[in-house]
Amino acid sequence: MGLRLSPHKTLVTHIDEGLDFLGWHIQRRRKQGTNRYYVYVHPAKKAVQAATRKVKTLCRQVGLNQPLDELLRRLNPTLRGWCGYFRPGVSSRVFSWLSHYTWQRVWRWLRRKHRHATIAELRRLYCRGGWWPASQEREMFNPEKLSTTRYRYRGTVIPSPWPSTDEEPHAA
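RE: above sequence
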């Protein structure tokens, strides 16, 4: 057929060095506090950088003359989708960092929108008295509050779709 492996996409490496695949970084590491090694799957650096670039781009695309609701309307589905994809891995630390980064970008957007307003005024107007940005209709999605789900090895608990060989054939 004339198929060839691409040297840019083909990687032969040891599992301890890790590899990136479909936005995930797969690597075997020692579990803290033990001498046992496990394979951990967490978001790759490229995927995190892409998410931060998207947040930054969205904050730039929404003009300062538009309400906060418009920014949140665009930002929330992007964050929910990204976090939903990376939820099954070891992602809580990355979610925490993304939450902090997004909060900073939205807060900077609000500061640019109201250059002469004090922090207390901005909190009263856009954070419902707290620190988390929210409009009248929606609140900014917080990735840090999303719980992660780890894959558990179930081994023989998963039923086999094939009949077992223990069954006796039916006599005719």
